[in-house]
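Why show two proteins at once? Because comparison is the fastest way to build intuition. When a single record is shown, students tend to memorize it. When two are placed side by side, the eye starts asking what differs. So, the first record is below.
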Amino acid sequence: MTYVSGGSIQNCIAGGATKIRPSEILREDLPISQGQIDDWEGDATDGGTINNDYILDLGVTDYLGPIQIGTPEQPKNLTLRNGSHLYVEGTIYVTGDVLLDPGSTIELDSVAYGSTSGVIIADGKITVE
């Protein structure tokens, strides 16, 4: 078993652990092709661009997509706080980070998607608290 410093191990039945630095974790390629990612980014961009951070707060509900948030040259973030709810109506490409606070939700809009899947991609970190 391997863990990164700062993490915690609970209910572990392994006989031991090895502490490593995060830089020692080997990178692996995504199981998704760059071509597929480029297609998703294009789908999102076709819906337009939001040039500011997109923030939902205080239990607000909104519908979004397809859309690009920010640009690669000027990255912007998607943040949901305090019980906010986002319905995804199309592919969302976030050029910065995505932060989903406790109690906030992201859900596919059943009218826009039916029973198919949707995509949110980010150039930065995606943090679900």
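Second record. Ask yourself what differs from the first in the token line.
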Amino acid sequence: MILKPRSTWNTIDSTKISEYQRCPRSYFFKYCLGWRADSDRNDLWFGSCWHMAMEHLLLNGYSAQSILDAYRLFESNYRDRFPEYTDDMYFPKVPGVVLRCLPEYCGQYKHDHDEYDVLYTEVAGTVPVDDNRLVTFKIDSILRSRRTGKIRSREHKTGKSNNRVWQDKFKLSMQVGTYDHVLKCIYGPDAVDCIEINGAIFSKGDKRKGEVGKWEFPRIEIPRYADMSNDWLWNVNQWLDWMDTDMERMLMCTEDDACMRCFPKNTESCTDFFGCPYMDFCLTWANPLQHIDQVPIGFIEEHWNPLAEETIRTRMEL
């Protein structure tokens, strides 16, 4: 079967680049074929709903009514996919915990709206990384300090543990580099302060201490100086070179080949996170092109385009 090119292949963002870095073969299954596990991941949907609540608070302040409205926005969207009977299974990432912790978040950061003007929320578009390449981006919010006039992006991230591994994973990430590059293209290098990770950590707590759910809200400031911004730019173009080479090789491969000579397997990533959903395919298929005539059981075909998300408020083509 011939694999037909799709327009979504040309929409490259930091998420796709990070997936390619983790494992090129996983990238092939996920973004070239569009195969995704046919199940809702609570972590991902909870994070999306948390983003909605955070955006509401940024735009409407931290009053009691705004907190209640943010919670209702979270709950109504979360319940679209996860009914009440699943709460015990997914605790503490459930609406009841969010109802309890949103007032604490707003109390911890009660001076946010005195310190920053909210310029934009949910900004998406494309930004050049060389003369002939665009990278797609989506930024949670862009803020300006009332004291210094400096610009930062505040990015909402959820997690299960506020440990060094969780904190350090952002500092050199492709995504944070993209945020930094976008802000410097819009406002100029001297105007940008940092990228701020607005963390929300939800854990079950220590039963020995009588804890029933535990949450905390760390913020991590990540500045990028000029030489490191240039380093990111070279790095992203190197990865894009390799991605382009694999795409060209893929279009020359056929189902008659003994193996698919593109998108190599990174066999050190098979057990990352919850385990790779494509591992069984990699164990049994030397040439996946021989098996693409039908989407496997337990998967759906869905070609993701980050610019098509309904939550985008502002679009920029830089």
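One difference worth noting in the second protein: The radius of gyration is 21 Å.
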